[in-house]
Amino acid sequence: MSLKLFENCAFRGVELRNRIVLSPMAMYIADEGRVNQFHLTHYQKFAMGGMGLVVVEQTAVSRRGRITNGCLGLWDDSQIEGMRQLVAGIHHFGAKAAIQINHGGRKASAQRAWRGNGVLNDEDVAAGEERWTPEGPSDFPFAEGWPVPDQMSPEDIARLRQDFIATARRALKAGFDIIEIHMAHGYLLQSFLTPLANRRTDAYGGSLENRMRLPLEIAADLRADLPAEVPIFARISATDWVDGGWTIADSVVLARELKRIGLDLVDCSSGGNLLRGATNSNLARGPGYQVPFARQVREEAGIPTMAVGMIRNGAQAEEVLQEGKADLIAIGRQALYDPFWAYHAAQELGVDKDFESWPEPYGWWLQKWAANVRAPDGRL
Question: Is 361 inside a domain boundary?
Fold first, then answer.
C-alpha cells in the first residue's frame, strides 16, 4: 500500500509536496495589522519542518474587521511588504503559502486570546487596547455582556465585498499561492450563515438560501477576480453544535454551492457561536472528532476537503486519507508542540528513516545521532 500523506498533490496551478497543512491559528501579536519578527520566525519554522502548505492566520480585510488589536491585516497597501517577507521565508523552505482572510463580525473588539479571550475591559483600555463597535448581520451580541453590533446595511455589505476583493489582491501581490475565505467560528461570514446570529428579514436573512447569500457572493467575487490558476479554499463550521443552529446538512448544501462557484476545497472545522475557547466549541474533543464532517462533505458535495481537529500522529493522518475521508490533513496545536511534526510522521511511517528529507545540516547530525540511540527494533 502506497502512503498518501507524503504524496504530491495539486490544486489548480499549485502543487504541494505533501498533504500536510499548518492549520491557521491566530497569534494576536501584530501591531496595526503588520507582520513582525514573531510572525516571520513562527511561520518559517513550519515550512522548515516539512509541511506542504502553511496557512497564515486569519487576516482582517478591514481595520474594523479585526477580532483583536493584535490581529494581522491586509486592509492597506503598507501591510503588503511584511507579508511578502513572510511568504518568501515559507517558500525558501519548500512549502506553499496560503492566507485566511476574515472579518471578525460580532466577535470583534475582543481581548487577545491569551489575555482572556473575552470582552475588552477598562483595564485593557488603560493598557493601550482600543475598543470599537463591531458589526454583524443583526444587532444581536455574541454573548451576554458583549457589545451590541451595528446591523450591516446594504451599503455596508457592498463595501465588505470590495474589502474581500482588495485584500485578496494584496495577498497575491505579497506572493501567497492560495486564498482561504474564513466562513467559520462565529466570525462575520459564519454569523450570516447561522440562525443563531442572523435575525435579518431582507434578502440576507431568513431562509437557508438567503443566509448563504453573502458568503457565496464573496466566494463568487473572488473566483471572478483572481487568476484562474489561484486556488480558493473556504473554512467552514460544519455544525454549531447547538439545537436550532447551523448543521452538517446545511454545510453540505453550502459546499455544493461553493463547488459550483469554482472553489477548490472545504476546510471542515466546527463551532464558534458559544463562549468557550478560541473556536468556542461546546463539544468534548477527542482524536479526529471533526473528521466525520470532512468525510460527509467530501462524499455528499463532491468537493475536496481538509480534515482538522486532534489529528495526533502520522498513522492517524494516513488512515484518514486512505479511507477517503479527506484530501488534506491540517495540524494545529500539535504543530505548535512539535513544529517538525511532518518529519516525525515520516519517521513513524517508515518513509524517511535516514533523515534524507530533513534540511541537510540537520540530517547530517541526526544520522549520526540515530546510529547511537536507535533501538534494536529500529525505533528512536
Answer: no
- Per the structure block, which three cell numbers stand in for 170? 494584496
What is the chain's mean pLDDT, rounded? 95
* Integer Cα distance of 296 and 290 in angstroms: 10
| Residue 244 in domain | yes
Task: Write out pLDDT tens, residues 204-257.
Answer: 999 999 999 999 999 999 999 999 999 999 999 999 999 999 999 999 999 999
Q: Which of these is catalytic: 28, 43, 187, 204? A: 187
Total number of domains constituting the chain: 1
> What is the domain-level CATH number for residue 233?
3.20.20.70
| Cα 320 to Cα 143: distance, rounded to the nearest angstrom | 35
Stated pTM of the model = 0.96
The answer to whether position 378 is within a domain reads: no
Task: Please report the DSSP string for 127-174 in residue order.
Answer: TT------EESSS--SSTTSPPPEEPPHHHHHHHHHHHHHHHHHHHHH
What is the Cα–Cα distance from 18 to 341, expressed in whole angstroms? 13
The stretches of 206-287 forming alpha helices (DSSP H) are: 208-225, 248-261
Instruction: Let me know how many helices (H) and strands (E) the chain has, helices first.
Output: 12, 13
Residue 354 lies in a domain: no
User: Catalytic annotation on 204?
Assistant: no
Cα separation, 33 vs 79, whole angstroms: 7
**Which residues have CB under 8 Å from 158's CB, separation 6+?**
none
pLDDT tens digits, 59-88: 999 999 999 999 999 999 999 999 999 999
pLDDT band at 47 (very low <50, low <70, confident <90, very high): very high
- Residue 313: give the domain boundaries: 9-349
